[in-house]
Amino acid sequence: MGGDYAVIALYIAGMIGVGWIGLRLAKTKSDYLVAGRRLGWFMYSGTMSAVVLGGASTVGGVKLGYTYGISGAWLVITIGAGILVLHAVFARRLVKLRVYTVGEMLDLRYGGRASAVSGVVMWGYTLMLTVTSTLAFASIFKVLFSIPSWAGIAIGGSIVVLYSVLGGMWSITLTDIAQFVIKTIGILFVLLPVALVSAGGFSGMAEKLDASYFEFTSIGGETILTYFLIYTFGLLIGQDIWQRVFTARTPRVATGGGVISGVYCLVYGIAGALIGTAAKVLYPDLGSAQDAFATIAERLLPTGVRGLVLAAALSALMSTSSGALIACATTTTSDLLRRVGLKSGEVLRNRVTTLVLGIVAIGIAMLVDDVVNALTIAYDILVGGLLVTIIGALFWKRGTREGAYASMVAGTVSVIAFMIIDGVAANSPIYWGLGVSLIVYVGVSLATPRTPDSILSVWTQRLHGSDNPTAAEDLSASEIRQELPQ
Q1: Which of 48, 324, 394, 409 could disulfide-pair with 130, CB 3.0 to 4.6 Å?
Q2: How many angstroms separate the CA atoms of 34 and 323, rounded?
Q3: Is residue 477 part of a domain?
Q4: Would residue 279 count as lying in a domain?
Q5: Which residue segment(s) compose the domain that 23 sits in?
Q6: If we measure between CA atoms, which residue out of 180, 172, 176 comes closest to residue 22?
Q7: pLDDT digits over 445-473, tens only?
Q8: HSE toward the beta carbon, residue 41, CA cutoff 13 A
Q9: Rg of the Cα trace of the chain?
Q10: What is the total count of domains within the chain?
């Protein structure tokens, strides 16, 4: 493993080095939280792909392929579909708003303090998303060093926290580009072809596996539908994703770069499922399907190359973990801490918040044992609590502040209640959460006075503003309140 250790060590040193570069670039709040809103096509599409394809998409995607075959690709396919819809329909509008958080957008649209409620929901989502990717470090470091899960989580999580705290979104963006290149080479151009050839190609796999492993719907129609509800819709409204949209230099960059990223996600999803299917042929009696990725990398690849593929897996985990961490910190400072009188503009305060939340996420990850379930919790809370309110803000003028408040609370409570009743892995929480949220939003909005035209005019002006966002100023939370009519 000496060659593998060398590759991994170089990779980790490189990530920390990039963090120091980001430290020099992150001089303002805009630099730290949204990379100064200066990313072009390549950097934007690379960093967007990196943030959405994390531990669940890589380790979890191979796990689903090991369990269900090619049908296991649906989890990542629905993520790619969400990226495509987001950038085809919403991205141009979001870039023009010049906000930092989903909560600030809701404040602007509803003319109230909607970020107080949405911030709590988004905080829970981004924190659990950080936990998801941090948890997956255990599988990789177990193979590398034969250490306990908690130690692997501590090592991987600490690296992410270090470079995220140093340079914020600039560090994360620069590391994401490196991670995007590494995992493209490691997963698509090394592990995928080696796994397929070792398993005897498609004909060899077909001889050894049940036919259901090659049926695209064998995972179940209800599960596929649930994935679309959770992940496709979740990608439309997540703070971690919106915050990447806010980094685009122009609306055109966001749209074009995002479409490229969405297509890449579709390819990545199919690759992961095929690797998992090959692992089922080669190692049919694994104690845990979650070990499929690390096992096939350890046993099939020569030293050095194995280190590259494991570095690719680390790249996937670190990019999503760091993106979710900075999103959680942004929500905390911009939507929650300002409620108790703390300003969100100082870079130092954002760094301290990122550090504290990173430590909390590492601690929680040591207590959770399933990467896909952790991701399900995160997206169930997000979609059930916020989807209806956000879509309503963008497309239904009759939606009111009271309707938004009631919808967010009712949807979130319903999701949590049915997770307790039916279990975390059940499909029912997201169905009940969305249904209750929609009924409450429409009912309360129709029963309360319309949003004043003075508030809607400010919203419309921002939403249909210049396609050249460099001419506009960023909106802080306090500036949003000042811009709205009293």
Answers
A1: 324
A2: 11
A3: no
A4: yes
A5: 1-371
A6: 172
A7: 999 999 998 888 888 888 776 555 444 44
A8: 4
A9: 22
A10: 1
